[in-house]
Write a structure and sequence with these properties.
By secondary structure, this protein is mainly beta. The chain contains 1 helix and 6 strands; from the N terminus they run αββββββ.
Length: 154
């Protein structure tokens, strides 16, 4: 009789002794929480060199990863009497320059990624240029088109 009771007890408890639970991993999806465009362009028509600077503050209301794509077109003459002009494009975060590029000729695309951004980014564009009267080319110029996205995990 003891053996029958022991077998019945084992059968009753057998359902409770299942293997470890199967855990389903959830993959966090990234969601775009902000998207902004910043466009800046200048053309110099003056014979003597001039310089210019512009700061643009990009504000984010969330914390996340920032992906930026910059299309930068530039053309600056090589004058005989002074240095060739340029455009300098910088990204500043927490009063520190985290990325920068300088161009004086060409059409280039750049990408910049930064993780765990909260607060503001500053885009600083500095340029110097002129227009040479000795050729029929247009005055020095640059065109900066920036696409900015912020992503975070949902």
């Amino acid at each position: 009789m003891k053996e029958v009771i022991l077998v019945v007890m084992c059968m009753l408890l057998a359902g409770c002794m299942s293997p470890t639970e199967t855990k389903i991993e959830t993959i966090d999806e990234e969601v775009m929480v902000d998207e902004q465009w910043n466009n800046e362009s200048v053309q110099y028509w003056n014979v003597n060199p001039m310089s210019r600077e512009n700061n643009t503050i990009i504000m984010f209301n969330e914390t996340g990863d920032v992906n930026m794509t910059l299309n930068l077109s530039a053309f600056f003459h090589e004058p005989l009497l002074w240095e060739q002009g340029f455009v300098n494009y910088s990204i500043i975060y927490n009063n520190e320059t985290v990325w920068a590029v300088e161009e004086n000729q060409g059409l280039n695309e750049y990408s910049f990624n930064m993780s765990n951004v909260s607060g503001n980014l500053t885009i600083r564009i500095q340029s110097s240029g002129s227009d040479s009267q000795t050729d029929n080319k247009p005055g020095d110029f640059f065109i900066a088109r920036t696409h900015i996205e912020m992503w975070n995990e949902e």
